[in-house]
Amino acid sequence: MVIEIGEKKSFSVFDPSIRFEHREFYEEIVSELNVIIPVCFYGEAIAVAVSENSTERDQITELMKSVENFSRQLLQITKKLFDQYYIAKEEQHESILHTTAYNKINTIDRNLLERTCDVRWWALETAFSECISFYENTKQNAVSILQILEEYPSRSEPHEPTTTEGKNASLSIADNLRNFSGLLRDGALKDFIERFKHHCLEFQGGEKDRKDLEDFLQNLVDLDSRISFACYRLEDIKNSYTLYRDLVIADSEGYIIANSNSLRRSEFLGIRVNDEDWFTRALKTHNGTEYIAQDICPSSVEEQLSLVYSTAVREDSDENGNVLGAMGIFFDFQGEAKIILDEYMPLTQAGIIQDGCYSMFTSSDGKIIASTDEDILEVGKRAHIPRNNRALADGEQVNTYMAFEGVDSAIFSSRTDGYLEYRGLGWSSHVILPKSHIFADTVQADEYYIESKELMNSNINPEINKQTYAKIQNDKNEIQLISLNGTIYASKMGKRGEQLGPIFKQITQSSNFITSKMEELLQEMAAVELQLNLRTLENFAKQAIDLIDRNLFERSADIRWWSTDEYFWKALLNPSEKEFMKASNRLKVINGSYTMYRNLVLADSNGIIKACSDTELMSELGGLDVSDHIWFQEGALTSQSNQYVVQDVMNSPLEKDKHRSLTYAGGIRENGNREGEAIGVLGILFDWDTEAKTILSTCLPKDRNGNVISGSVAVYVNRDFEVIETTDEVDFSVGSVLTLPTEVLALQSGEKVSGIFEFNDQKYIYGACRTKGYREYPGLNWIACVLRPISTNS
């Protein structure tokens, strides 16, 4: 049976979700209420027996009926109270788990947006266009060389070196020239060069033909060098961006010319991918701003399912140049998906996901593409979940109850709505948890050092609970007043009223017991609300720090790759206005593809700015001495291309109109070498405040109507607990230092905590999480804090 959680629901006391303690609790209250009503009936009977007139009888009877009425009201309130308790608990968990499912799909979308930037930029690398162009020219020249060899048939099959092995070694030189693409396979080109060199030495044709053969031999050597260099550059990319399994360059016929994965190079160079979607569609792109995303599917480049982004490689690496071939980048989707899916899942003390808890991604056609347990949720199979959870519209969220693997479970699903200009691939995220997890036991409010009365009156406690509490207090006071009036009236009756005294005493005792029990339950409900709110704030804080870490990991990859660009080292080795203008134009093209940067600057070895991406600022920044800037000093000390430095968020003369800048830097080395002394430094200025504030704004707590709770704030603080970005410039301004609780100060890498603390005479609940970095990016030891005020009613 499938139940949509959104349907109006009532929790019977016999519902399996109701805890045993609460059933017992309910029965105690009902039992006590069932005592009061017979007592009232008995009181009415006594009134008839002892009253001397109808006035006395009517007054006592009226008191008893009032007690009966309040008792019945309390019985109804008791029933509704359990509904309120479990519905509120369900709604809070629903909100948390909806957010969890959405965060997972949103995180993968944010990640894949970066991939669309990567492939478009990398395809403009000159080494790739030059490699394909030279390969095509050499292949064309092979036709005329073949004609020369055919003119000398007796010399076209020279003695072959005995060391030559492999499939292509068994072919004649003429056959190799006819099947030129075969020379890309398994070291065949190097073997062919040796064989062709031997042939040139024995060639006895005309001088012009000999010269053509020797020129062709040199072209073969140059081609081998260019292919090696293209592979070298692809390796540099992969070393900088570790979330790719392979990157490949293919010619216009679909033959792989170069790849980044050196361990598998001999297997894949020369294979043909002309029938693969990513390749054929890449050739049809109109310019360098377009890209192709091939959804999860098999590829001859990899043994596992592939997620490929591609675009055309164009002549002269010009965005509008003629198409020469294609670049395909094979994202480590499985590795990335595991990281994302494992996040926010309930764990055992051993740190593994609890039994019955699952998370998965499904494709647009409902097939599982990644999961936390492939024995239960097998990749490639359709997910056995309700149709409502599968047939989602963009951005839609659905949650249902059903039996999953024999366990009553809740399934929370969210479909992608893309991120910024990236529209996504129609994927959905699903989180599956046992129903018992939603209604699990909770802690007491006193663990957080807040008095029950303050918590009951706080804005954390839902208004309906406050109203119920007020109603119970009112009924309690009314019953006590009735009992008091009855006791006084009985005493006035003298000996006749003695039988009424015990009745009113019993009514007082029972009403006190009932209302105290109900108050206890309401206090527990408030404690549950507090705990769930604290958990929500912890998750928001973790989300805030994780998103910025992932974002800055990308920045650390960008700087490592861009620092090797030939336009920059050529300008520094051959300094001239023309060369620095080329460097500025190159920086401008990069910045156009990666809009999360405000500016990119190139400084020479003396720390003088020579080029920047924002050409309008060149008149101001050109010639500026940055030799005393941290990013330059540390960047100049790097000795390898896989090294980078970060200047933490602070003021920068490079951005006079900004209060804070975050700068990444890397050393420029001669000829783009991987090792060596820096001849200059590239600095990239991240659009810190825009990106950070956007992330923080998405992590603010919301009410049940989806509105941000008034007074809530989210901040990033650095290792000195100075606010470096905020959603509240008034009370938590950038540059101010927060006096955070000791539990926050003691957080270790990746740890999170929540609690209550006071700031500026206001009491807040908070969630905090310290960075743990992402992949090889260690983070900057920052903490994200999300706070919600506890405003109390008078």
Concise account of the structure shown:
This protein is of the alpha+beta class and 794 residues long. Helix content is 45%, strand content 18%.
Describe the structure.
The protein is of the alpha+beta class and 794 residues long. Among the domains are: 170 residues, no CATH class; 103 residues, PAS domain (Beta-Lactamase, 2-Layer Sandwich), CATH 3.30.450.20; 122 residues, 2-Layer Sandwich (Beta-Lactamase), CATH 3.30.450.20; 94 residues, Beta-Lactamase. Helices cover 45% and strands 18% of the residues. The chain has a six-stranded antiparallel β-sheet. Strand 2 and strand 3 form a beta hairpin. The longest helix has 69 residues. The N terminus is likely disordered.
Low-confidence runs (pLDDT<50, min 5 residues)?
Answer: 1-7, 158-165
The major sheet is characterized as: 6 strands, antiparallel
Q: What's the shape? A: elongated
Mean pLDDT: 87
- Euclidean distance between termini CA atoms: 47 Å
User: How big a fraction of the residues is strand?
Assistant: 15-25%
Number of strands: 21
Number of helices: 20
Query: What Rg do the Cα atoms give?
Result: 37 Å
Q: If strands are numbered along the chain, what order do they take across the biggest sheet?
A: 1-9-10-11-7-8
SSE-based structural type: alpha+beta
Q: What is the helix fraction of residues, given as a range?
A: 40-55%
Protein name: Cache domain-containing protein
